[in-house]
């Protein structure tokens, strides 16, 4: 199938899921979505535009950001297992978010909250980069270790905080779009936009960088500068997302593998498709999370794990050549 046809196909699926997200929920709508485009009042209008719309729009924006972050992570670290969770970005952002909220320095959904998450994500990724060995699986193991430490620190902050209701922040461990509002989406969208711009800026250099640091250096790519820019871009994408909805597992790991399977490894084109497929998968996962066991809602991260882990195993079994290095 041609790339343009694939793009139209996934765009159509995403639009259908977006519309379905607006229609689906515990409260049954008595008015068509077409009529509600110009009528935001009443129970139906409030339900769609104040509750479901920010949730669906947030899924699109955050799914796109996490998909791009995963593609950049695997490209910059030249490892098919690299993704925001494993390199410390998600756990760093979680710790930053919980720290500022529990201390009273910022409220959930505020700009300060997002800025703290982004800063801590950058520091966590740089710490992994500093401590990790340069060969073998040392980088991934270091990332896992740092993520575990930061996650434990976040748990301690929650446990000892005297602020009432702080224990409810434990939803950050599994992810949820349930707290998203129009205001929260407005706060995180500019940060994710900055991350996307930075990611596209470095993407055209990642193809050269994939040849190796020495080879890329001789054709005009500065590896250290490229890694730093990539980490900053990923931190904006992941930090803003985590500050609003928590850590969402497997999305950043799975999406780039699907994209490579469909259109190949060229990074600039990969980013566009990663954004589209990331949005589509997160819309689908959120629909399942809030409809499978109504009126109960399943944490979003559990759904993405249930979708992502089996899909990743299938990719591993069918595309061994992409995972196993030749001796």
Task: Describe the secondary-structure layout.
Layout: H1 3-23, H2 33-36, H3 42-76, H4 89-102, H5 111-131, H6 138-160, H7 182-209, H8 213-218, H9 223-245, H10 251-263, H11 267-291, H12 300-318
Helix pairs in contact: 1-3, 1-11, 3-7, 3-9, 3-10, 3-11, 4-5, 4-6, 4-9, 5-6, 5-9, 7-9, 10-11, 10-12, 11-12
Characterise the protein shown here.
With 327 residues, the protein is mainly α. It has a domain at 78-161 and 171-247: ABC transporter involved in vitamin B12 uptake, BtuC. Helices cover 71% and strands 0% of the residues. It is built from 12 helices and no strands. The protein has helices at residues 3-23, 33-36, 42-76, 89-102, 111-131, 138-160, 182-209, 213-218, 223-245, 251-263, 267-291, 300-318. Helix 1 (3-23) packs antiparallel against helix 3 (42-76) and helix 11 crosses helix 12.
Structural class: mainly alpha
Compute the number of strand runs.
0
Please give the CATH architecture of one domain: Orthogonal Bundle
Q: What is the succession of H and E elements?
A: HHHHHHHHHHHH
Please report the distance between the alpha carbons of the first and last residues.
Answer: 34 Å
CATH fold field value of one domain: ABC transporter involved in vitamin B12 uptake, BtuC
Mean of residue pLDDT values: 85
């Amino acid at each position: 199938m041609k790339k343009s046809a694939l793009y139209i196909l996934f765009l159509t699926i995403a639009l259908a899921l977006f519309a379905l997200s607006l229609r689906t929920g515990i409260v049954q709508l008595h008015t068509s979505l077409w009529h509600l485009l110009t009528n935001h009042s009443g129970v139906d209008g409030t339900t769609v535009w104040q509750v479901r719309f920010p949730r669906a729009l947030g899924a699109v924006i955050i799914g796109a950001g996490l998909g791009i972050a995963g593609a950049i992570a695997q490209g910059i670290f030249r490892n098919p297992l690299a993704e925001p969770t494993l390199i410390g970005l998600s756990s760093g952002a979680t710790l930053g978010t919980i720290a500022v909220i529990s201390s009273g320095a910022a409220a959930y959904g505020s700009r300060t909250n997002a800025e703290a998450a982004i800063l801590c994500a950058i520091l966590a990724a740089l710490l992994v980069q500093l401590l990790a060995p340069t060969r073998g699986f040392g980088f991934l193991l270091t990332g896992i270790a740092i993520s575990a430490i930061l996650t434990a620190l976040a748990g301690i902050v929650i446990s000892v905080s005297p602020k009432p209701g702080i224990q409810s922040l434990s939803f950050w461990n599994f992810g949820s779009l349930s707290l998203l509002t129009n205001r929260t989406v407005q706060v995180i969208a500019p940060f994710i936009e900055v991350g996307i711009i930075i990611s596209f800026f470095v993407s055209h250099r990642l193809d050269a960088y994939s040849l190796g640091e020495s080879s890329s250096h001789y054709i005009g790519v500065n590896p250290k500068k490229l890694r730093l820019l990539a980490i900053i871009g990923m931190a904006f994408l992941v930090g803003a997302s985590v500050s609003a909805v928590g850590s969402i597992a497997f999305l950043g790991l799975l999406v780039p593998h699907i994209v490579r399977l469909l259109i190949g490894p060229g990074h600039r084109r990969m980013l566009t498709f990663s954004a589209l497929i990331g949005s589509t998968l997160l819309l689908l996962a959120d629909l399942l999370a809030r409809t499978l066991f109504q009126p109960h809602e399943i944490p979003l991260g559990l759904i993405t794990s249930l979708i992502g882990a089996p899909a990743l195993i299938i990719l591993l079994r069918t595309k061994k050549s992409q995972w196993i290095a030749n001796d």
